[in-house]
Amino acid sequence: MRLASSPADIAIQTAKTRQSLQRRPQADLPGTLFKWLLISFTGFAIAFLGVLVVVMVNDGWSVLSGRLSGFLSNGFSQRSAQDAGVWQGIVGSVQIGIATALFAIPVGIATAIYLVEYATGGWFARAVELNVRNLAGVPSIVYGLLGLTVFVKTLDGFTQGKTVIAGGLTLAAMVLPIIVITSVEALKAVPQGIREAAYGVGATKWEVLSRQILPAAVSTILTGTVLSLARALGEAAPLILVGAATGFISFGDSNFLETFTGPFTALPVLIFNFARQPGEDWSANAAAASVVILILVLMINGAALYFRNRFEKKW
Amino acid sequence: MNKNVTSNRQVSRFRWLTFVSLVGVITLVAGACGSSDSNSSSESKSTAQQGLSGTITVTGSSSVEPITNLLAEAFSEVHPSVAISVSGPGSGDGHKAACAGEVPIWNSSRQIKDKEIDCLQEKGIDFIEFRVGIDGISAIISIENDAIECLNFADLYSLVGVEATGFSKWSDANSLNADIGGTGPFPEGDLEIFAPGEESGTFDSFIEIALEDVWEERVEAGEADANYAVRPDYNASANDNVIIDGIAGNKYSLGWVGFAFADVARDRVALLEVDGGDGCVAPSPATIADASFPIARFLYTYVDAAKADDPAVKDFIDYMLSDEGQKYVVEAGYVNLSEEDITQSRASWANRTTGKTF
């Protein structure tokens, strides 16, 4: 091929190149195949979720359509599946969620800030971060054992034994690594230029952190935090280990705050109970309770989306 | 330009403040919780005098849990101010919780063991023991199958034990049955087994009482799997009615359910007699109550003697041992105690007799 020398040659050459560029997308067979492969895998993922939702709603339909308000407002009943409700489970899950958030969020975010902003690069920070990442993979039942020995037995002066606080602390320990990791990632994602610019105009470390870094990272931190709480709300096994009531529960005269130091149950524990009772009415209850917890988790995820949009900062 | 920068900064500061105030509110709520904790315990003590209030915590056997749930539900309607929580992690866990001084009342689907008594004694905890009901299990076959009337434990093991895995006809079990002292040979006929799933207390009880002795001997002899007592290839259902349907619909089926379920389906299934070493005995409330029917176990409730006179605990146990309370034993699918046993339980409670009494 000779080099283009005249303007006319160049024009011809350019047109040819443009033509070949235009043709290329049509000839991109691997690309098209890959796209459809991805679509089919995505379809799989959605189909799993879809089947799960359809089966749950279908199994629980008699309850959801027939007596939804009673199901939500009634307490536990062994006597008849038709009277059993999930009220105490909803209350318990909300309480445990609050307790978990109270313990896990401040500790998790503070740890992350320390790791990213203060302990930069040292072996200590690296060791802690590695440990935290490993902890995130520990099965929840192990945190249940931890909760039983540490929060229920050793710290029973504070938790008062098998209470909402002990349950909340246990789940907090479980989600803490996730909160730390997401917060660390969020803080690391704030461009280094922001820090340098702020220092450059004479800001102190506290000013850089409180006026620039944290406001910039807060949407991601909150999203990760709220999602980890959603995971905590789905756990039954650690709660049963730290003494959630699997059977009848009534709070007597205690008010909402007093129940934090009393016996507790939670939605997943109720589902566990419903699922082991004989009879189709009980399976319907279990399915309906699963739908309730799914909606609760969706609401929490909605809150996460809200936080992200509310506080998000674009670069 | 300059204006723009400040307004941007104000916005981000505003957002930051919102976040901080959110955290602040949460912390305040926490503070409120913390301070109310200290008041709550003294408050609940002072209100205990007027009307019945207080706390009842019951844990222990998951098999007894349904009885306690029913009792608690009815009790709670009369005494709504009493806080009650019932859980059923297992009999052993119940005794452990009692030894840690965590619960006033705990259930057990077997009698307390010596080492559990030792633990309680070390902690200075006296206990009151009573039986609350009986868990009887019926081995059942189709009512159309009149070839079988009575089986012993070896027969049951050779048909449903782990070594019976793969036996598709009754007659497949004949050589094993002869080896371990069964009453075979069995007739031909397709063997279909319907029984509760592994999560069920009835499944556990049946293994413990009917299969375990034979199975352990076979494990020691190196013949049987040491991990599973029951063949895995059977139709498991958590629903006793499904088991009954399965048995009734297959002429040569075999299975087991709680006695209460089998008893109400006598028009469709035959309740086998069982020989536990003292001859064939048919299951009935009477033979189960006097323990002559071999596949049955007593269900126990224990009370911490030091907490027995707590008003809420006292009323709850009074209610449990009353005639009305005993109805829930049957409603939960179990068999009522013999007159003698319930009288003894009531006497132990009335006199606060501590220690093992049965």
Description:
The complex is a heterodimer of chains A (315) and B (358). Chain A is built from 14 helices and one strand, in the order H-H-H-H-H-H-H-H-H-H-H-H-E-H-H. With 315 residues, chain A is mainly alpha-helical. Helix content of chain A is 76%, strand content 1%. Chain B starts with a helix and ends in a 7-residue tail after the last helix. Chain B has 13 helices and twelve strands. Chain B is 46% helix and 18% strand. In chain B, helix 2 crosses helix 12 and helix 5 packs across helix 7 (201-220). Chain B folds into two domains: 54-134 and 297-351, D-Maltodextrin-Binding Protein, domain 2 (3-Layer(aba) Sandwich), CATH 3.40.190; 136-289, Periplasmic binding protein-like II (D-Maltodextrin-Binding Protein, domain 2, 3-Layer(aba) Sandwich). Chain B has helices spanning 2-47, 65-78, 91-99, 114-122, 153-160, 174-179, 201-220, 240-249, 259-263, 285-289, 311-321, 323-331, 339-351; strands spanning 54-60, 82-86, 105-108, 127-142, 150-152, 192-196, 235-237, 253-258, 269-271, 273-275, 280-281, 296-304. Chain B is of the alpha/beta class and 358 residues long. In chain B, the strands form two sheets. In chain B, strands 1, 2, 3, 4, 6, 7, 8, 9 and 12 form a nine-stranded mixed sheet that branches. A three-stranded mixed sheet of chain B has the order 5-10-11. The chains are: A mainly alpha (315), B alpha/beta (358). The interface between A and B is large, with 48 and 54 residues. Strand 1 of chain A pairs antiparallel with strand 2 of chain B.
